[in-house]
Amino acid sequence: MIPNADADHQLLQPKRVRLHVTGILQLSGQLDHSFAMIPMQDAQQYLEMGSSVTGIAIKVTDVFHANKLVRDAGEVTNSYVYIKSWIGTYGYMYRDIQMIRAIMYLAMVLVIGVACFNIVSTLVMAVKDKSGDIAVLRTLGAKDGLIRAIFVWYGLLAGSVGSLFGVVIGVICALNLTSIINGIEYLIGHKFLSGDIYFIDFLPSELHWLDVFYVLVTALLLSLLASWYPARRASRIDPARVLSGQ
Q1: In which band, very low, low, confident or very high, does the pLDDT at 200 lie, cut at 50, 70 and 90?
Q2: What is the SS3 assignment for 11?
Q3: Rounded to whole angstroms, what are the CA distances from 213 to 166, 169, 185, 208?
Q4: Taking the domains of the chain in order of start, what are their residue ranges?
Q5: How far is 234 from 246, CA to CA, in rounded Å?
Q6: Residue 14 has what DSSP assignment?
Q7: Are the C-beta atoms of 80 and 69 separated by less than 8 Å?
Q8: What percent of the chain has pLDDT over 70?
Q9: DSSP alpha helices (H): ranges in 1-143?
Q10: How many CB atoms lie within 10 A of CB 122?
Q11: Mean pLDDT over residues 140-167, rounded?
Q12: Are 151 and 127 in contact (CB under 8 A)?
């Protein structure tokens, strides 16, 4: 059925058109329930449009740059047109992923915070084990700032090594995530994203170096904060009590 109206834009009885189905296109997604194709000349005839068209579809090489293409096209187009990308129409999953990124960043900060407790416990044990050496240094004239700096740098070094290893492994996994997931799916014989349910049947990945920088800086700052309490505790050791065995 095709909507129909007269010259005064009054709605009339819809037109009924009989079409012969020559084939079934299966995309394994939501489009299978709402998408049909007919020859353009026939559609123009049924809609009484002559040689006019109502829209133009453009295929791009990188689908994730569709929004940028829409903005660029809008800047150079002088006519009144409506431009939209697949992200605005079928990109609900893409938007959900962007929201989950923020949640995952918060969860990652919490995980890093928990890991920093290992630095705290390690440095506290080091302060306890090295209390005699610290007392000797204090007796020889070492200032509180020097004692604090030793343990702060020790904790920061441990955090830096762990952060750099994590960044390297994370970048490698992010750059090869699609291949890794495909390999896991091949080994277990099961697809994590089915094209019958989702709009895509693969797990894409895009590396943002700015996010990597934020993660690295956050990890280093938390390592620095985790080192402060043990360092402060070490600087307050009383050399007289330690050396006297009290």
Answers
A1: low
A2: strand
A3: 12, 14, 31, 9
A4: 92-243
A5: 16
A6: P
A7: no
A8: 88
A9: 40-46, 66-76, 86-90, 92-129, 131-139
A10: 16
A11: 85
A12: yes
Write out the two tokens for 39: 């020859």
Rg of the chain on CA atoms, in Å: 32
Residues 54, 50: Cα–Cα separation, whole Å: 11
Instruction: Give me the amino acid identity at 2.
Output: I
Phi, psi at 3, each rounded to 5°: -55, 145
CA dist., res. 196 & res. 28, Å (int): 5
Please give the Cα distance from 189 to 129 (Å, whole number): 53
Q: Which two tokens stand for residue 114?
A: 């928990």
Q: Please report, as a single letter, which amino acid is at residue 206.
A: E
Greatest CA separation for the chain: 106
pLDDT digits (tens, 9 = 90+) for 36-62: 888 888 888 887 778 888 888 888 888
Q: Provide the pLDDT for residue 196.
A: 61
Return the SS3 of 238: coil
Task: Look up tokens 């006019």; give the residue.
Answer: 52
**pLDDT higher than threshold 80 for residue 179:** yes
Say which amino acid occupies 89. T
